[in-house]
Write a structure and sequence with these properties.
The complex is a heterodimer of chains A (280) and B (561). By secondary structure, chain A is an all-alpha fold. Chain A is built from ten helices and two strands; from the N terminus they run H-H-H-H-H-H-H-E-E-H-H-H. Chain B has a two-stranded antiparallel ribbon. Classes of the chains: A mainly alpha (280), B mainly alpha (561).
Chain lengths: 280, 561
């Protein structure tokens, strides 16, 4: 590199005459050009060989060891997901996010609850009957997992936890959007935290793992797998629990109660005073 | 007394009579009791609205007393060890734990809690409906302004009573409410911090507040409520009840039923209806399931945390009011919360309290009134009332706007803006519409008085014109126009209301008369247009609700073209 530095010419001052000096300058310029070309060639070769070491290896890997499930998943992906999530799961601006690294947990939640594929772009994706069969969902999960990795599905009993602790964690982490017992609630600008009433254990678990839409990700360092299982145990226990006080009226609290007292209570009272008022 | 014998004239002969005689001999109560029992109450269904509130208050006293046997107003933290599994082992205050115990471990406790809460909601609701009846019929006019003011104070106290009761269980919902109460107190300019320290004995939440609210809830406010209700009723009895205008009713009499037995029978019947409805709600519909809310922890808050419906309008005003903090030089701030939660209710309740005075000043009407007004006859007042209701309803719905947004899939932001715009636009619209409706109803009354009731009978005149036959409801002048003046009483609009149809078979749920007997009975007398005899003049309404029956409302007159 020192040859390309004009200041390296300075030691050549031993050449006495201006002609010598001019020749020397011309020669060093020539040398500098040569060196530049050589450097470029070297870096090109280095880049090329590095690429040949890394990239083709990956391509070869993908080409040879893609399982049948992943291939089927790719086909499903290319048919139903590609327009918003891109050819290589990299996402499309203003349409869909990148799926690299979201993992099979996210795919399971989004596809199993019917949120994906999306019908149209709106404030948030509503849950609806799942479009894909369980087998197809497995294939999509395999494809996305194979291309970027990410959180995987949990195994074992998802309700293996402490009930009371789950309740406390739920109120601390979840109730601010999903309401006291998971009835759901409104968020800003048409978005909403859904009701957990008909959610399966695995859906709740994968939602915590992947943080769909407005929900934050509750990674294993925020809520340990045991804590997640405790929360699921609490949510499902409360959901299955009968209301000891009678009709639950949506477990909504004062809004539903106020509606009942005006619609049922005051109507009944009006009936009562008409009845008593018409007695002679 | 010894001179009297059992055979003396007028002396009691039965056992009961003798006992009564002995009591009167000592207390001399026969006169006042007779006067009281003979007191006449006018008869209209809407006069029973206030009674609903009274009976709710009785239910509240009874069920509340039962709850005090088991509730412990302490904020000491303990570990729960009761029978509700999903909370066992959790740290919570004794107040919350004892509420759980009432719900799950005390015999009849959950029913009593729910009965108490439903009765409380119904208590305030019936006060509001009662207030609306008083307002729209002008029952607050001189000489009843005092009772109006007592009534509004009762309403305010009922709100405070409800808010303190809501706080007592110390669950996550009530704790969130308490946090807001604390913030509202802090928002008072200048004295806010001091007031907060005085109420909470320190910073939020401290260890005192549940105990303080408890004594306010079970002793202070109920005692004041009881005293004011007594005053309310005594003044009512002294001033006599108002009545609607109608046959034989003037400013100087009261037409109705004696307290005993008719009115007492009705009141007792209504008492059981109110008890029944509250008990049915308490037993069948779950209210405030505190075990689902969890113990209060300032780090937690749930979506859709609302106060009970009667405070919800203030939650609504808070949600609608923009976040306009006023920062004054020298580190002083008037928080935005101050305006919707203190200034607004201050203005609203002051206007409500002073309304009789305001109306007196505006109309210059300082005469004593004992006859009520129909809302249509006072369009300005009626429209003002509807304007207030529209304003209140927008606030009330905005108090639950997140639940509305969630359940009906509307954007919460859209709900907020709809509330802001609606709060400004809807009340004037309600005013204009109500005013027009009032005028329209007035005109229709006058039209019927002048031209008679539409009979639905179409007659073809010799030259081919079709006309509908009208039935005049009183004497007519030479042009065929009715001469009856409008007297503030309902005007019959249908022929059936003046006896064109046969009288209905009596009985509310099932007939209490033999239909065939009524039929035979009525066949003897003519009816409708065929009964030409005008043996009696119809001068006023014969509607059942006015105490008269269609059958003695007079026979129709000769039909008139």
């Amino acid at each position: 590199m020192s040859t390309t530095n004009p200041q390296s010419d300075a030691p050549l001052a031993d050449a006495g005459t201006p002609v010598d000096r001019a020749r020397a300058r011309r020669r060093s310029k020539h040398r500098r050009r040569l060196a530049n070309v050589a450097g470029l060639m070297a870096s090109l070769v280095l880049t090329g060989s590095l690429y040949s070491v890394i990239a083709p290896a990956q391509a070869a890997d993908e080409g040879t060891s893609e399982s049948a499930a992943e291939a089927a998943g790719r086909e499903l992906y290319e048919r139903s997901c590609i327009s918003c999530h891109g050819e290589n799961l990299e996402g499309v601006p203003n349409r869909g996010p990148s799926l690299i690294g979201v993992g099979e947990a996210s795919v399971y939640f989004q596809v199993h609850t019917g949120r994906m594929p999306l019908v149209r772009q709106e404030a948030d994706a509503p849950d609806k009957p799942a479009v894909f069969s369980d087998e197809e969902i497995d294939q999509l999960m395999a494809y996305v997992q194979a291309n970027g990795g990410g959180p995987t599905l949990p195994s074992g009993d998802l309700r293996e936890g402490d009930l009371a602790e789950g309740g406390e964690l739920f109120r601390l982490n979840c109730a601010s959007c999903h309401n006291f017992v998971g009835q759901g609630g409104a968020l800003s600008s048409g978005k909403a935290a859904p009701s957990l009433e008909s959610s399966s254990d695995l859906e709740i678990y994968t939602a915590m793992l992947s943080g769909p839409e407005n929900m934050p990700v509750f990674g294993d360092n925020q809520l340990t797998p045991e804590e997640k299982r405790s929360i699921i145990l609490y949510v499902q226990t409360i959901d299955d629990m009968a209301d000891p006080g009678g009709a639950g009226i949506g477990r909504m609290g004062p809004v539903a109660e106020g509606l009942v007292i005006w619609v049922v209570g005051i109507s009944a009272m009006m009936f009562g005073i008409f009845w008593m008022g018409s007695k002679a | 007394m010894a001179a009297r014998t059992a055979t003396a004239p007028g002396a009691p002969t039965t056992k009961l009579g003798k006992a009564g005689y002995e009591i009167d001999d000592r207390l001399i109560v026969a006169g006042p009791v007779r006067r009281t029992l003979n007191k006449v109450f006018p008869d209209h269904w809407s006069f029973l609205l206030g009674e609903i509130a009274l009976y709710c208050f009785i239910i509240l006293l009874l069920s509340g007393t039962y709850l005090t046997f088991f509730f412990q107003a302490s904020m000491t933290e303990i570990i729960y060890d009761g029978s509700y599994d999903p909370l066992r082992g959790q740290e919570m205050s004794i107040a919350y734990a004892s509420t759980l115990d009432i719900s799950f471990d005390v015999r009849g406790g959950l029913f009593m809690r729910q009965l108490h809460h439903w009765a409380a909601l119904l208590f305030v609701a019936s006060i509001v409906v009662h207030l609306l009846r008083i307002f729209f019929t002008g029952a607050f006019r001189r000489p009843r302004e005092t009772n109006w003011i007592i009534g509004v104070v009762l309403l305010i106290l009922a709100l405070l009573e409800g808010a303190t009761g809501y706080t007592l269980p110390d669950d996550l919902l009530s704790g969130t409410g308490l946090r807001i109460i604390s913030a509202i107190i802090l928002a008072i300019p200048v004295i806010g911090t001091w007031a907060h320290w005085a109420v909470f004995n320190g910073d939020f939440v401290g260890t005192e507040i549940i105990g303080r609210f408890y004594i306010v809830h079970v002793l202070l406010i109920p005692a004041i409520l009881l005293a004011l209700i007594a005053a309310h009723l005594l003044i009512l009895v002294k001033q006599k009840h108002t009545q609607f205008p109608g046959p034989g009713r003037t400013e100087h009499n009261v037409v109705g039923n004696r307290l005993f037995p008719t009115f007492a029978g009705k009141a007792t019947g209504l008492l059981f209806v109110v008890f029944g409805v509250c008990a049915a709600l308490g037993g069948l519909v779950q209210i405030n399931p505190v075990w689902l809310w969890g113990p209060y922890n300032p780090a937690m808050v749930s979506a859709a945390s609302q106060p009970d419906w009667y405070v919800m309008f203030l939650d609504g005003s808070t949600r609608l009011f923009p976040a306009w903090d006023i920062n004054l030089p020298g580190d002083y701030t008037i928080p935005a919360l101050f305006w919707p939660t203190l200034v607004l209710p201050g203005i609203l309740f002051t206007l409500l309290l002073l309304y009789p005075v305001i109306e007196r000043k505006l109309t210059g009407d300082t005469v004593s009134h004992h006859l009520l007004q129909r809302p249509r006859d006072v369009p300005v007042r009626t429209s003002l009332g509807m304007m207030a209701i529209a304003f209140y309803l927008v606030l009330l719905i905005s108090g639950g706007n997140d639940v509305v947004a969630d359940k009906f899939d509307i954007s919460l932001n859209a709900m907020t803006w709809a509330g802001r715009i609606g709060l400004v636009l809807l009340p004037p619209i309600a005013y204009v519409i109500t005013y027009r409706i009032c005028l329209g109803l007035q005109q229709h009354d006058r039209e019927v008085l002048e031209h008679g009731i539409e009979t639905g009978v179409i007659r073809r005149l010799p030259h081919g014109e079709f006309i509908e036959v009208h039935q005049p409801i009183g004497p007519v002048d030479e042009h065929g126009h009715g001469q009856l003046a409008y007297g503030g009483a309902p005007v019959p609009k249908k022929m059936n209301q003046v006896g064109a149809a046969r009288r209905a078979i009596r009985g509310f749920f099932s007939p209490v008369e033999e239909p065939t007997a009524v039929e035979i009975d009525q066949r003897a007398e003519g009816r409708g247009l065929s009964a030409g005899e005008s043996d009696r003049e119809l001068t006023t309404s014969g509607r059942p609700s006015e105490g008269g029956r269609p059958s003695d409302g007079g026979r129709p007159q000769d039909p008139r073209d």
